[in-house]
Design brief:
By secondary structure, the protein is mainly β. The longest helix has 5 residues. A six-stranded parallel beta sheet has the order 3-7-11-15-18-19, with no helix packed on it. The protein has a five-stranded parallel beta sheet with strand order 1-5-9-13-16, with no helix packed on it.
């Protein structure tokens, strides 16, 4: 969908069913990338790396949801350590990559992350119980969590309150709705 070689900020966005041959079905990054309150679902790099994101620059991802992306390596996120790539995840859901594992390469845990079913990404390993990608209100499609989700009330509230998240989810709904923010792009 996007090739970035400069400075890119992505907010309140959905990347769905994008394809790349080599790397980065959703985004291929060789610059500086910040992603917040966004969803990546069904993206693929069918002969390569990083179905959701391929990185050989610097990436910080906050309060976003990656589901069902695939590649040979790093179905969700591939960090190319050979190029000193740096990836930091904060309050993220990365789940059910259909090939290549959820993460590949060195990934920094910024806290509040959830990975399922494999443990290739940092954070707790439990089922996020995501709904299908659909209109849940707001300008872009999201994947809702249910109250039995491990993401429910489990996010780091300081990350939730700080820019660029600013206590909102992908739909623009105020976070938190209860005692703590939810992990991922969707606030229950």
């Amino acid at each position: 969908a996007i090739i970035n070689g400069g400075i890119l900020t992505v907010t309140y966005s959905t990347f769905f069913d994008n394809q790349s041959f080599y790397g980065g079905g959703g985004i291929s990054n060789d610059g500086t990338l910040t992603v917040s309150n966004s969803s990546f679902a069904g993206n693929n790099a069918y002969a390569g790396y990083g179905g959701g994101i391929y990185n050989q620059g610097a990436v910080t991802i906050r309060h976003s949801t990656f589901f069902g992306n695939w590649a040979n390596h790093g179905g969700g996120i591939f960090n190319n350590d050979q190029y000193s790539g740096a990836v930091t995840l904060k309050n993220m859901i990365i789940a059910n990559s259909t090939s290549g594992g959820n993460c590949y390469g060195t990934i920094t845990d910024g806290g509040g992350n959830l990975s399922y079913p494999d443990t290739t990404c940092p954070g707790i390993n439990d089922n996020p119980r995501l709904g299908s990608l659909q209109n849940n209100g707001g300008p872009t499609e999201t994947m809702a969590i249910d109250p039995r989700s491990a993401a429910f009330d489990a996010a780091n509230d300081a990350t939730c309150a700080a820019p660029p998240v600013n206590n909102h989810d992908q739909r623009g709904i105020t976070r938190p709705q209860r005692s703590h923010c939810d992990i991922g792009a969707y606030e229950y």
